[in-house]
Records
---
Amino acid sequence: MPTLTLRSLLAVAAATLAMPVMVHAQAPANDAANTPPPPQTMKLEEGEAPEVTITQPSTEKKIIEKKQQGKVTEVKVQTGRTTYYAKPNDTPGSMRGDAQSDSSRPAQFQVGEFGPPKKHEAPEPVQTLQPAPAKK
C-alpha cells in the first residue's frame, strides 16, 4: 500500500505542476482578442518657418581714459552692453613695495542698466468716461 500512495502523490503533484502552464498558455490568446488595434499614424505637413531675426551684440570696444596732470585716474571700457571702470590704487600714505600699494584694483562694473537705453515716448492720454446724465 505504501507504493500506491507514493504513486498517487507523484501523479497529483505532476498534474498540479502542469495545470498552471496550461492556464498561462491560454491567457494571452484571450487578451489579444480583447485589445483594440493600435491607432493609425498620419503624416503631418510642415508649416512655414517662423520669421525670426537674431542680431549679434556689437563686439566693438570703446575705451575712454580720464587723466589729471598727465596721470590716468580712470579708464571706462564699453564692450557691447557691458560697461566697467578700472581705477588705479592710489592709497594716500602708502609707499612703493608696501602691502597697501598694490597697483591692481578690481574693476567696477556698472549695474542697473540692462539693454540699450529706452526711448521715452509721450504718455498715452487717459481715457475718461463721460458723466452719466442727471436724473430728472
---
Amino acid sequence: MPKFTVESTYHLPVYRQRTYDAATPAEACRQAIEDDDWSAEKFDCEMAGETYVTGIWSGADAVYRADSVAVPSQFHEMVQRKAGHFQELFDQLAYVAQPMGLSRTDFERWLPTAIAAVEKAKAIIEERRDPYEQTEPPGS
C-alpha cells in the first residue's frame, strides 16, 4: 500500500482589543487595520479554524524530499476555495455584463448594479477597499 506524507494546518485566531478616536465606524476600522502594534495580542484557542491540507508528498516522511502531489481542491482551506470560485463567477459576470436579450429598460436598471458588483469584485481580487465604500449603513 502506498504511503503519503500530508501536511495539514489550521488558523489560530489572534486578536487585540483597542480603542481608537475616530469620527465614524469606518474610520475606526481603518485605524485598527493599519495599526501595527500587536504587543497586547491574545490567542483564541477555542475558535481555531478548520483543518485543511497544505501539502502532500509521495512516501513516508517525504516532506520537501520528494515532488509534491496536487492537493484535491476539496481539501483546500474553505476561504481559498470560495475565493477561487468567486474568481470564476466574477469572470463569468464580467463576460456577460453587456446587453443580451434584456429590454432596454431592464438593461438600464441591471447595468449599474452589475457594474458595481464587477468593480467590488475587482477590489476584492486586488485586495483593495470597496470602490463605493460607505461610512455609515443606509438609513443611519
---
Amino acid sequence: MRKEQIRIILVDDHKLVRQSWKMLLENNPRMEVVADCENGSTAIEQAQKLSPDIILVDINMSPDNGFVITEKLVQMMPSLKIIGLSANNQPKYASRMMELGAKGYLTKTSSLEEINHGINEVHEGRFYICNEIKRHLPPSE
C-alpha cells in the first residue's frame, strides 16, 4: 500500500534556507512542499488556502517569530500539525513550542534521516523532539 503524500508548508525568512529545505524534503517521494513562506502572515494565508499536513516553522524570524506564528496558527486551525525548526538547540525553545501547540521540534542540524522520521511521526499523530534536544533535557523521573 502506497502511503499518501505528506503536504508541507515551510516558513523561514531566509529564501536560501527555504530552497534548501524544499530540495531536501522533496528527495523523499512521500513529501511535497506545497508552499514556502517568508513570514507569518503569508504562512497563515497559505495554511488556510492549502490545508497542509505539516507546517515547519522557523523560530527566529521577524516581524513575528515562530512562537507567535505557531500560536496564531493553532488558534485558527487546531488540527494543524506544526513542527518548530531552529538553529537553537535549547530545550526551552522546544518546550515553549510544544506549550503553544506544536507537535514536534527539529534543529537545523538534525540529520535528513531524523528530519524525515520526525515529520512522519508527527504526521501519524505522535509528538517528536529531535535527539539533539533530548540530550539536553533533564532526565524524567
